[in-house]
Structure formats: structure tokens, C-alpha cells
Write a structure and sequence with these properties.
It contains four helices and eight strands; from the N terminus they run βααβββββαβαβ. With 197 residues, it is of the alpha+beta class. It folds into two domains: 63 residues; 115 residues, no CATH class. The strands form two sheets. The chain has a four-stranded antiparallel sheet, with no helix packed on it. Strands 7-6-5-8 form a four-stranded mixed sheet, sandwiched between helices. The longest helix has 25 residues.
Length: 197
């Protein structure tokens, strides 16, 4: 009997993203209320007849607050994705871009615990191939966060991408094993679940 043609890790409830959204909304509402109390009663015109710049502060602050809400809302609505078939590994580490990384262009897929949290790290072959996506700066936000959490030597030198495994249902070992079934022999699949701090 043939195995599945494609797998996709089932996503967990977005509790961390919702918590950040609630914290931002609470802090923004408090700051907006303070700005409204301080500047909401300002007249539109000064005694000289010129426009009063302080009268525009509440609306400008409201606009900035709503713009600041966008990344937090995206983190709730566009959840991370990890999927695989026999051609490629598909990853969306954050709310921005979904990357299709052909197995032919990957060197390793590993999992490590950094700062008490499990991450999936992906390392691409050098030089990059002409097919598939290449992780950019915005795609590496989670990788940079993991790097900041590491308190000692960085355990996964040369990684190009990282995904938080808490965003998915299942143990890190089981999730990594599901990917290993699709990886070709040249891609190193490894997991070290001891805390790398």
C-alpha cells in the first residue's frame, strides 16, 4: 500500500498570537484614551486663526494604532505552515510569505530545543539552485528570535529558516518523523531535543 502523497502539520490553537494581539490592543486602547483625554478637547483653530496641530493628534494616533494592529492581526489570521510532498518542503514561518523549498535544494532539516522551546531549522544548499524560493530577511524572523534565545553556542550553524514547533499539534519527534518520510537521502534529518541554551 502506498503512503500519502502529501502531509501538512496540523496547526495548534493560536494562543501565543492571540495573547500578543490582546496585549497590543489593551496597551493601544489605554494610550489612545490618554491621548484623547489630553488632546481631544483642543479647538481646530488657534486664536490667531491658524490650524491647531494638537487637534489632529487623536485622529493621527488612532490611525497609527490601527496600522500597528496589522502585524498582530496577520499573526492570528495567517498561521505558520509546514507541509511536504516528494518534491518539496513548503514552509510559512510567520504571517508573510509561503516558501516552496524543493528537496533538491536542501541540506538539512533539524529540530532543536532553544531556550526551552522546540524549533524546526532548515538549511539550504550553497550555492542556491535556480528552482524554488530562497528565504529572505522577513522570512527569518523566527530564526533571529531563536538565535536571541540561545544562551550558549548556536547549535544549528548555517540555518536559513526556522519554525516554532509549538504552533503545531504533536510532539517534535513525531512532526520531524512525518517530514523524514518525504525527504530524499541527501537531506540530513536530525533532532536533538535536549535544551540547547
Amino acid at each position: 500500500m502506498a503512503g500519502p502523497e502529501r502531509i501538512e502539520w496540523r496547526r495548534s490553537f493560536p494562543s501565543a498570537a492571540l495573547t500578543m494581539l490582546v496585549w497590543y490592543a489593551s496597551a493601544a486602547a489605554l494610550a489612545l484614551g490618554l491621548v484623547w483625554v489630553l488632546f481631544g478637547g483642543e479647538p481646530a483653530r488657534l486664536d490667531s486663526g491658524a490650524a491647531n496641530p494638537l487637534a489632529t493628534l487623536p485622529r493621527a494616533f488612532l490611525l497609527l494604532t490601527l496600522l500597528g494592529l496589522v502585524p498582530f492581526g496577520l499573526a492570528v489570521l495567517r498561521r505558520p505552515i509546514v507541509a511536504a510532498n516528494h518534491y518539496a518542503l513548503t514552509i510559512r514561518p510567520g504571517p508573510w510569505r509561503t516558501l516552496v523549498l524543493p528537496w533538491a535544494g536542501l541540506a538539512s532539516v533539524t529540530s532543536y530545543r532553544v531556550g526551552g522551546e522546540a524549533y524546526l531549522f532548515v538549511r539550504c544548499l550553497e550555492p542556491p539552485g535556480s528552482v524554488g524560493d530562497r528565504p529572505g530577511w522577513a522570512d527569518q524572523t523566527v530564526l533571529r528570535a531563536a538565535h536571541r534565545q540561545a544562551r550558549s553556542a548556536w547549535p544549528v550553524e548555517g540555518s536559513d529558516l526556522a519554525v516554532r514547533m509549538r504552533d503545531f499539534v504533536g510532539s517534535p519527534q513525531a512532526l520531524l518523523s512525518a517530514l523524514a518520510a518525504f525527504a530524499p537521502d541527501h537531506v540530513m534529518i536530525d533532532g536533538d531535543f535536549a535544551d540547547a541554551t
